[in-house]
Specification:
Two copies of one chain form a homodimer.
Chain A: H1 16-29, E1 33-34, H2 37-42, E2 58-61, H3 65-78, E3 82-85, E4 102-105, E5 112-116, E6 121-124, H4 130-137, E7 142-143, H5 156-162, H6 169-172, E8 179-185, E9 191-195, H7 207-211, E10 220-227, E11 229-230, E12 237-243, H8 246-258, E13 265-269, H9 271-281, E14 291-297, H10 302-315, E15 320-324, H11 327-338, H12 340-345, E16 349-352, E17 355-356, H13 362-376, E18 382-385, E19 390-397, H14 415-430, H15 449-453, H16 455-468
Parallel strand pairs in A: 2-4, 3-4
Antiparallel strand pairs in A: 1-2, 5-6, 6-10, 7-11, 8-9, 8-10, 12-14, 12-15, 13-14, 13-18, 16-19, 17-19, 18-19
Chain lengths: 480, 480
């Protein structure tokens, strides 16, 4: 959304505590402390489109665990809020600067410290880009499973902080399943190590899982021991199918699941996304209302599984099924799915939602999205990770609507989108689902949190937070 | 170990609080309250061999969530400890009755409430036996992944409370990865629901993971939504190989891992276990010092993967490799591994340990076990889940040692075993491992907990416990 200057913005050093903290930060951390207004201004947002109403006190670009410890000690001493941040690619506003906070970036802590193939683990600093670890592993025949769409630009620390998902979760699990241990700096500056280098281990409560997905509200992740997995021998088979309508495509995905073959990837694009991508790529027009299914199989049984899935898709009524193990052809087939975001971005501002429903509720959820779109006069093109019931409805707001008088611009989206989102989350919950499958709560979904967790559940979570962060300095205003 | 009568045993109603609580329990729960001394006495132990020094105040056999809530409300009101218990098959003493406590059994809450194949979930009460769920799923072609060796006798609630592992964890994950949501009665009697029915979801802290493995110290699990998985189409291939020594066998397992094929099962038995089983089964003598490796592959690529693994094992020096996809032959091959426990039990009292090390440290850990066994004059036959570095060294204490004057009988094992175990855990930790991979801490490993978590880590865990259990009534004396 548009950048606006907001009168409520809080400048550095506005408060006495802020000024004292800032002085101490500069004393101890020197040129790692950034005060340039332009550099601070961009921290008010991330990839969600949300802009916070005020600027940070300072940005600290930490280069070591000790830097992070120093920042948190100072912040605790002066009761100044801290916003941990990686690459700023979040989709829920979880790492956006809040007025007067210290934004603590670990982006420069980007060393891969160890790759132990025989133990199938890697030890990384939090600022390592997800894809960079993948590139380091690939020549050895290993991979890091979590594969959020942002993998080329997002950090592993951020992936852990949001428990990021991706396309291959149904087969290879979410980020939590890939994290064995963490080093975390707590708000008082102390360093806590959780978990271990072993695959199994049940000594004490699972703090590793507690920090995974905690969105910077408990401490700052400064190191991670993650599982890596062998890339299975065998080819990767890609299957692309078009259906005359979404209902048939959704039924086809259900039929694949029922066939008990577990594809590595199974993506479902609705008619609006198919139409947008067709226009964007200039590919031949499909039948009006056509929906798209993309499937990949891997491992020793990939060819056989690919054949079985292609057969299921044909039997389920696909009017076009292409299948290939050739990487060049596969890339062409994948391009249709990969072009979705650029295709939507030319249509307006895109706000990506992230609901997840039980797999069997996918058709019902698609129907709800269509109903809500019609009710609010909004196009809500939607893609689903059909293997795990995670849908990304995209609110595409034409430029004409953004910034209209009375529209809420700070906050990232006009009111009409918030109202439609409200109905969307209500529908997802009614179908047994959740308001966020893999992006996190951040600021964008905070108002719906109590509806999902319940009053006592939310209170319990707040008490857990207080165990780690009694002063409440960790990312205040996010999630809780 | 032997049952002994202990003078320190606390009878029901010994204290005023106990008597008042007991009266109220009987008023509210009637015949679900069991006071029979013999029934209470057996609760002092589980499958660990440990016997607690005193008996329970009462056993309550809960039949509903409301029963559990009533017990916890009464226990909180009177500050009486509660020990949650399932089938009593634990190996760390976590569910053993402590003097004056209410043992709250959920064993009779054993209904499978729902199986939703299209959502790949099941909803169960905590007392459902692991294998019973498997039997209900198998005709549909689905399985429940967690497969502790106790699956025929242990409950899913107990599996969750200990985050149980099993033979197939390296490929299919531990219990935590199979649990999507929990219903938990908190110490104040309130009911908390965590998690969801969806595969993904990141709303709030991961309380489901926090309760998984918490060993009854936070609340009582009264319901679980678990993932089920399709049994992959294709055959199951079983490979059994003998090596002339343990070093060669361990190297062979490492070579299988390095080949990037992920077997469903990979078990390694050392020379002592091979010798014991050979004698027990009366099968032909193997080479002195021979070690055994058992591997299973499954899924569409099972045959191809099985061939590849058999090749690796032969190249690594196996002097005998048998391979079969015939279920009858497979059962014969598996029998060698499955006979280990009965074969050891004829030799003396068996205390099963449960260390886990990074996979690459398996040979070093085996060497440590041999050294410790020699130093203490103990046989420590050991089996390892070689796919994930989890070893089960078995202290086999001949009948002559158990109960010797001065030997510690209450507590389950003679001092010499504790001393050897102490060295064992020290070695595991030095190699980057943990003192328990899948059995839990319970009472048996409590004394080593701080060594692994550190003083501040342990203190943090205690503060977390207090959030849920401020009165400290949940399973006191276990873990923390």
């Amino acid at each position: 959304m548009s950048t606006v200057t907001d009168a409520r913005a809080t400048g550095p050093g506005e408060t006495g505590a802020g000024a004292s903290a800032l002085g101490q930060l500069i004393d101890e951390l020197g040129d790692r402390v950034i005060l340039d207004p332009a550099a601070l201004d961009v921290l008010r947002t991330d990839r969600s489109g949300w802009w916070s109403e005020g600027g940070a006190l300072a940005l600290v670009e930490a280069r070591s665990v000790e830097d992070v410890q120093a920042v948190l000690r100072i912040a605790s001493a002066h009761r100044v809020p801290v916003v941990p941040r990686g690459a700023g690619t979040g989709l829920a506003g979880g790492a956006t600067a809040t007025p007067g906070a210290i934004v603590l970036s670990v982006r420069e802590m980007d060393r891969i410290l160890e790759i132990a193939l025989d133990d199938e683990i890697a030890v990384v600093e939090p600022g390592v880009i997800n894809a960079a670890l993948g590139e380091a592993l690939e020549p050895h025949g290993y991979a890091f499973s979590p594969d959020p769409a942002s993998k080329a630009i997002s950090t592993i620390g951020g992936n852990i902080a949001t428990n990021a998902g991706g396309l291959m979760c149904a087969k290879y699990g979410v980020t939590r399943e890939a994290v064995l241990g963490l080093d975390v700096v707590l708000p008082d500056g102390s360093l806590l190590s959780t978990g271990r280098r072993t695959v199994k281990g049940v000594t004490g409560y699972d703090l590793t899982a507690l920090f995974t997905g905690s969105e910077g509200t408990l401490g700052v992740i400064v190191g991670a021991t993650v599982r890596i997995r062998p890339i299975p021998p065998g080819q990767l088979v890609t299957i692309a199918a078009f259906f005359s309508d979404l209902t048939a495509a959704a039924a086809a995905c259900a039929a694949v699941t029922a066939s008990r073959v577990r594809p590595a990837v199974m993506e479902l694009m609705d008619a609006l996304t198919v139409a947008a991508v067709t226009r964007y790529l200039g590919t031949p027009e499909r039948a009006p209302g056509a929906a798209f299914v993309l499937v990949q199989t891997d491992g020793a049984g990939a060819a056989e599984e690919g054949d079985a899935i292609a057969r299921v898709l044909r039997e389920a009524g696909a009017f076009s099924v292409e299948q290939s193990a050739d990487p060049v052809v596969a890339a062409e087939l994948l391009a249709f799915r990969r072009s979705m975001h650029p295709a939507l971005e030319v249509l307006g501002e895109v706000l990506i939602e992230d609901i997840c429903v039980p797999r069997s509720a996918l058709p019902a959820m698609f129907a709800e999205i269509e109903r809500i779109g019609a009710a609010y006069g909004l196009d809500i093109p939607t893609v689903a990770h059909a293997g795990d019931g995670n849908l990304h409805p995209n609110f595409v707001v034409p430029p004409a609507i953004v910034g209209v008088p009375g529209g809420e611009v700070v906050g990232g989206a006009p009111d009409i989108v918030w109202q439609a989102a409200d109905e969307l989350f209500e529908s997802a919950r009614r179908l047994g689902g959740t308001l966020t499958g893999e992006h996190g709560v951040g600021v964008l979904k905070r108002r719906w949190l109590e509806g999902e967790l319940g009053e006592s559940g939310l209170e319990l979570q707040r008490r857990l937070k207080a165990v780690f962060d009694p002063l409440g300095i960790m990312n205040p205003g996010k999630v809780y």
